[in-house]
Design brief:
Layout: H1 2-7, E1 10-17, H2 20-33, E2 38-41, H3 49-53, H4 60-86, H5 103-125, E3 149-154, H6 162-170, E4 176-181
Helix pairs in contact: 4-5
Length: 182
Amino acid sequence: MAIGKIREGLYGLVAEFNDPQALLDAALAVRERGYTETDAFSPFPIHGLAEAVGFHKSRLSLIVLTMGILGGAGGFFMCWYANVIGYPLNIGGKPLNSWPAWIPITFECAILLAAFGAVFGMLALNGLPMPYHPVFNVRRFDSASRDKFFLVIQARDPRFKLEEARSFLATLGPREVTDVPW
């Protein structure tokens, strides 16, 4: 059902509010109604809004941890291979597998890959770079960065029915409810 709406060119509905408390109350009401594909836009952070629209914990920490472990293991393996297999040198009778000397390289490789994982994981999880978003098609959306507050219900939401969602948003006291073309 949602796929057909996307093919018709409708991204969803957007409701414009004049104050942050009205947006927060509307987001909570939309969440209670069962809509899961929602988004809110505000010129400044609003305490509790992320929970109201249903943001969940990010998997970014798991990505960073995995990349850090891979980087550390890769750095250690690189040192081990070079000193034990690739180019073994017996210097002063020390063993070839002298791992304490490899700790700085192991640490630096772990930090390097964890940092890459953090940057590229954040970009991927946020869907960036996204130079265009369908809400930019809404005439008054440029006020979202100044003094207005917007709540979007996306057409891909399983509960989304256009007229039902429009009438529900109208009961929440918005300034205006507008279609968002794709």
